[in-house]
Amino acid sequence: MADTPIPLEVRNIKKRFGNTEVLKGLSLEARKGDVITLIGASGSGKSTFLRCMNLLEQPNEGELFVHGEQIRFKETKHGREPADWNQVVQMRAKLSMVFQSFNLWAHMTLLENVIEAPVHVLKKSKKEAIEHARALLKRVGLAERADYYPAQLSGGQQQRGAIARAL
């Protein structure tokens, strides 16, 4: 039986802002079921590393693999950037991040926040997305809050809602 590809592999990621080297060759393998914690002082590069992994920031050097597929880069007059933005969109559909500020849309209910990407990005039927979203909200203990708006939720509930959305 062939080995399944590692869902996320990062090799030797380096990131500079001007002359300041923030990431000095970080590598990571994240396999299905892994729980990974990044620990470091404020300003040590934890968020920059995460932003480089999903290409919200462009790493200056290094390699990214998602389910065995290498993300291709090219050099431009502005520096290094992905060679194929469609590949990045496909990669982001397979990986999710929960940010410190959660980024739930205030004008949408929790259920609407959770179904937004499956319906509009993954092109799932609204019925299927709602069914799956309700199961995820139940899993994070928010089934009874599906019709609440983010402002009606505590910070912890918002975070769990963002986790359900990421799943």
At the fold tier of CATH, the topology name of the largest domain is Rossmann fold
- Nearest-angstrom radius of gyration? 18 Å
What's the shape? globular
> Using DSSP, what is the number of strands?
6
Mean pLDDT: 89
The CATH architecture of the largest domain comes to 3-Layer(aba) Sandwich
Number of helices: 5
- What is the strand arrangement across the widest sheet? 2-1-3-4
Query: What is the structural class?
Result: alpha+beta
The CATH class name of the largest domain reads Alpha Beta
CATH superfamily of the largest domain: P-loop containing nucleotide triphosphate hydrolases
Report how far the terminal alpha carbons are from each other. 28 Å
Poorly predicted runs: none
Helix content: 25-40%
How is the biggest beta sheet arranged? 4 strands, antiparallel
User: Secondary-structure element order, as H and E?
Assistant: EEHEEEEHHHH
Portion in strands: 15-25%
Count of domains: 2
